[in-house]
Amino acid sequence: MSMEEKIVEELKSILGDLGEVWIQREKRVYAKVPKNLVLPILAYLKDKGFHQLTTITCVDWIKRGKFELIYNLFSLYHENIHVFIKTELERDKETMPTAIDIYPMAFDYEREIHEMFGIVFEGHPRLDSFILEDWDGPPPMRKDFDTAKYVEEKYGVKDYTEEIWKRMEQPYREEKDE
Amino acid sequence: MSRVKEFDFEYFIGPAHPGVTGNMNYHIWAEGDTIIKIEPNLGYLHRAFEKLIERRMWIKNFPLIPRICVPDPDVNEVLYAMAIEKLMGIEAPPRAQYLRVFMLEMSRMASYLFYFGGVAGTLGLYTLPNWSIGDRDYILDRFEEISGHRIYHIYQTIGGVRRDIPDPGYIERVLELMDYLEKRLKDYDKVFFEHPIFKKRAKGVGVVDKETALKFSVTGPNLRAAGVPYDVRKAEPYLVYDRLEFNVPQVFTDGDVYSRVMQRRLEFEESIKIVRQVMENLPEGPVNIKLRNPFELRVPEGEIYVKVESSKGEYGFYLVSDGDVKPYRLHVRGPSFSHGLQLVRHIGPGTNIADIPVILFSLDICPPDAER
């Protein structure tokens, strides 16, 4: 039995019918779990030796009305396997308990996701502006964020055609000191 | 920090400062000259790559994507091409894979030369920056010959690389450059790596031990300098790294600035070895797969995580496709996100204010790949 299969067996035995577990390809194991089981699974895997939270990815599935969070865990002690814990959030109830007690690295990843997608991490001590300073628009990485409309509303659009024509009509004059 | 005394000082390193590799700001509180708190500030190089990538066709992202990291741009191109190829189920021809390894290793060496110069500069040893950045230019010359560009090469494409090596003499010129760099490394030793000032200033400073490194997701040369011989090229060989002979040096494993610099100096020799092998064993054949119409390209639905060993650490792309002509989502996992933020907050307090530039530079932080 390969290491991937062992991890899948283990996760299946804890999750039962509550989640799906599968091997995507070599050294990549995926698990899809409900929102309230994410933290217990992360804590369990950390105890098992998955010491590294490589990243947290957020995907906005706007057609389904969901946000998907993907926790990317990595272990040196399990033949360098990545385990991806996936969970889905409703688009209108975008809250998630924070994982910084389990993985301190989650601190900045969660701040970034909060800023870019507007997901609120409950219990996070510092969800202030991170990369986008003085940002007042909607979270920009959401699929329904319209860049052109935002620029139009924030900075306004000015038509310079008339001004340019006027300038071109003026004859060229040398400036003289009088 | 709530406690502010008369003798507390506040310092701002960056956003434009030679002590940091890019435009990034560190806000430092110090008591006398001992640091009590350090807080990184991002946002000076945010260019919204992830959003821009979602709005362009698959093939049109190649000129954009190397700009994520300036000193080591080729990893981005290679990762993006590798991710698409894996989703489409195609594989680049062997000659293209060898050329990709060649580009990655040359880029790694260029990045390390930048790094050596930077570390020496922060210690006030200004001979090495002039030499190493001058020698980096010879690498850029070879890049220009093969791809037409010096910094951002835009050399990769879906299913291979854009063009073959210019002429048979190119291999000789690359091998000549490798001999030159190997010879120069001996000069670097004399002027910097064996310099008593460097040893005195770097040994025992900015220690990231094994436990801290594993806790804070440290990867790459910084992790190997802490005594963990983990290298993506060996652990999960991509391209043709499993056919090449090279070592993961484990000589300096204290995790301090000295170990981190010397780790990279030893890996530089391994890169020279790899480039020589690639150039001597370059197989014949085509360099790319001809796609029918790249502008009509649709990548099958799916998601994938690919990673490579960059000069700074593990660099990963999480790519999601929904079967459209554009990528649905691309998430960049840059190594600087873990090295530059949470790790610095942890190791910063307690160090001397004079050591901060060299500690920050020795971690090889590249802010663009943290904020994208």
What are the main properties of this structure?
heterodimer, A: 178 residues, alpha/beta, Beta Polymerase, domain 2, five-stranded mixed beta sheet, two-stranded parallel ribbon, elongated, B: 372 residues, alpha+beta, Cytochrome-c3 Hydrogenase, chain B, three-stranded antiparallel beta sheet, 13 helices, 8 strands, globular
Average predicted local confidence, pLDDT of chain B: 88
The poorly predicted ranges of chain B are: none
Rg calculated over all Cα atoms of chain A:
25 Å
Determine the oligomeric state from the structure.
heterodimer
- How far the N terminus sits from the C terminus of chain A, by CA atoms, comes to 95 Å
Structural class per helix/strand content of chain B?
A: alpha+beta
Report the CATH architecture of chain A.
2-Layer Sandwich
Shape of chain B: globular
Count of distinct structural domains of chain B = 1
Protein name (chain B): NADH-quinone oxidoreductase subunit D
InterPro entries (chain B): NADH_Q_OxRdtase_suD, NADH_UbQ_OxRdtase_49kDa_CS, NDH1_su_D/H, NiFe-Hase_large
Family (chain B): Belongs to the complex I 49 kDa subunit family.
Keywords (chain B): Membrane, NAD, Translocase, Transmembrane, Transmembrane helix, Transport
Structure description:
The complex is a heterodimer of chains A (178) and B (372). Chain A has 178 residues and is α/β, with parallel strands linked by helices. Chain A has a single domain (3-128), classed as NADH:ubiquinone oxidoreductase Nqo5 subunit (Beta Polymerase, domain 2). Chain A has helices at 3-15, 38-48, 106-117, 147-155, 161-169, and strands spanning 20-25, 28-32, 52-61, 66-75, 81-90, 95-97, 120-122. In chain A, the strands form 2 sheets. A 5-stranded mixed β-sheet of chain A has the order 1-2-5-4-3, covered by helices on one side. A two-stranded parallel ribbon of chain A has the order 6-7. The mean pLDDT of chain A is 87. Chain B is α+β, with helices and mostly antiparallel strands. Chain B has a single domain, classed as Cytochrome-c3 Hydrogenase, chain B. Chain B has 13 helices and 8 strands. Chain B has helices at residues 49-53, 74-88, 94-122, 127-147, 169-193, 196-202, 210-215, 220-224, 232-235, 257-280, 336-347, 356-362, 367-371; strands at 8-13, 25-31, 34-41, 156-157, 160-161, 302-309, 314-321, 329-333. A 3-stranded antiparallel β-sheet of chain B has the order 1-2-3. The radius of gyration of chain B is 21 Å and the shape is globular. The A-B interface holds A 24, 27-28, 51-55, 57-60, 70, 72, 76, 80, 82, 84, 104-105, 107-109, 130-133, 140-141, 147 and B 42-43, 46, 48, 50-51, 214-217, 228, 230, 235-236, 304-305, 314, 316, 318, 320, 328-329, 331, 333, 337-338, 341-342, 371.
